[in-house]
Design goal:
Elements (H helix, E strand, L loop, with lengths): L1 H17 L10 H26 L9 H7 L27 E7 L15 H4 L1 E3 L3 E2 L5 E10 L4 E10 L6 H6 L12 E2 L9 E10 L5 E10 L3 E11 L4 E4 L2 H13 L8 E9 L6 E9 L5 E9 L5 E5 L12 E8 L2 H64 L3 H46 L1
Helix pairs in contact: 2-7
């Protein structure tokens, strides 16, 4: 009985001494940690693979970093803009398609004007007719703005550099405002303090070499008419504009001196006609006075492109010759139904083939993506097994030897393993060479039989 009590007491003391101790984990902790890291890396590769598949059809969800990359500013001049296609209704066989032709812009001289549509006052902006340079490298167009708080307008003049590797017609048809220069080459004042005032910039014509552009700036009031027209020449070689206000001063001086007529008390204006055919560096301007009935001709004048000299040419419009250098597109009827229908059938065949090729390419891309993912996982598993084998070898050597002997023994075993691996690779290489030789012999024998 006493011995039994002593045994129970000893067991209780042992429980008190060792009962709170943390038990040691089963197995090698380093190996478990390596395996855990390996599984984490494999999971990351799987997530990359699944993300790459989802990116083909973006859902719109993205990280902040991805959003910042996509929203970074891009060069507008290098953006590829697809020409929009008008969908053809299924119940219509033929939809008239407009045909275009390239015509002279300034024909007759001085006729180009900005025509505002009804929707201009609703949209508050309109891009007007553009003019193309004689060498078809530049397109300039005015953009007009409406300010409803004062019922006034302002205008900017923008430049688009046309693509070179296209026909002249395609250069104009594919010109897009997204490719315009970010800053306008010319602008009116944007002050809208005066009610019902308008300010517009209308391109009149290019010079023969395309280095200069004649523009007319109109300032007026929708309730009162045009107040003043100012000819302006923009020089593309220097990016400088010249307001030819001196010609107005010359006209006022002439009529005051010779006819004792003070034009400051009259309603009159100038109309830029274009570049002089005899001297392309001079601008032809027509001056008219308004009497309430038929306008009075104040003479045909010319001024050089920098506004330094002005002179009277004639009082007869037929005595001057004005160049017409710039181009524009003009509707030229409609495309014949047979051509449209044949083009539509051809486009459908092309689109069907493109959709088929796209689907085939997507499947091939998916297979390549999956193949790359599996190869990556296979490589990771192989590297992990090699690491584990190497770790087991080190542990086994360290358990049997110590110090430099363990290092030397490890090197010796690794050298033997590498030699065996090299022999194995050489044998595999020889087998592949023999297999290739047999295939070549079969092909050669078939060709000889033929």
């Amino acid at each position: 009985m006493i011995y039994a009590l002593l045994g129970i007491a000893a067991a209780f003391c042992a429980f008190i001494q060792w009962g709170d101790e943390i038990p040691m984990p089963h197995g090698d902790v380093n190996k478990k940690e390596a395996k855990y890291i390996h599984n984490v890396n494999k999971q990351e590769e799987k997530e990359k693979y699944e993300k790459a598949k989802l990116e083909k059809n973006p859902s719109g969800y993205m990280t902040v970093e991805e959003y910042e990359i996509l929203s970074a500013p891009k060069d507008r001049m290098t953006m590829d803009i697809e020409v929009p296609k008008i969908p053809t209704p299924a119940d219509m066989i033929y939809v008239p398609q407009p045909a275009y032709k390239i015509v002279r812009y300034n024909n007759p001289p001085g006729s180009p004007e900005i025509s505002l549509t009804r929707t201009f006052y609703q949209r508050r902006q309109q891009n007007a007719q553009g003019i193309v340079s004689p060498d078809f490298t530049k397109l300039v167009y005015p953009s007009v703005y409406y300010y409803p708080n004062s019922a006034s307008t302002a205008c900017d003049l923008f430049l688009i550099n046309l693509e070179e590797a296209k026909s002249n017609m395609d250069r104009i048809l594919t010109a897009n405002v997204v490719h315009r220069m970010s800053e306008p080459i010319l602008s009116t004042t944007k002050d809208n303090d005066n009610y019902f005032t308008f300010r517009t910039l209308t391109p009149v014509d290019f010079s023969a070499d395309g280095t200069k552009l004649l523009i007319k700036e109109k300032i007026g009031n929708t309730k009162d008419g045009i107040w003043k027209t100012t000819p302006i020449v923009y020089d593309f070689s220097t990016n400088v504009s010249y307001e030819l206000i001196e010609v107005r001063d010359a006209i006022i001086y002439y009529w005051k001196t010779n006819k004792n007529l003070n034009l400051d008390d009259k309603r009159w204006d100038v109309y830029p006609l274009g570049f002089d055919a005899n001297n392309p560096d001079w601008i032809i301007v027509n001056a008219l006075a308004y009497t309430g009935e038929t306008p009075v001709n104040l003479g045909i004048w010319k001024v050089n492109s920098k506004g330094e000299q002005s002179r009277l040419v004639t009082f007869k419009n037929s005595d001057v010759q004005v160049l017409m250098n710039g181009y524009k597109l003009e509707k030229d009827g409609v495309v014949p139904p047979t051509i449209t229908e044949n083009e539509e059938k051809q486009l459908k065949r092309i689109e069907k083939e493109q959709a088929k090729n796209k689907k085939k390419q997507e499947k091939a891309d998916d297979k390549e993506l999956e193949k790359a993912y599996k190869m990556k996982i296979k490589q990771m598993n192989s590297e992990f097994r090699e690491q584990q084998k190497d770790y087991n070898l080190r542990q086994r050597i360290n358990g049997s030897t110590s110090g430099n002997e363990a290092v030397e023994k490890y090197k010796e075993i690794k050298a033997k393993q590498e030699a065996k691996e090299q022999i194995k690779l050489e044998k595999q290489k020889q087998r592949e060479l023999k297999k290739l030789e047999k295939q070549q012999q079969k092909v050669q024998s078939k060709s000889e039989k033929k």
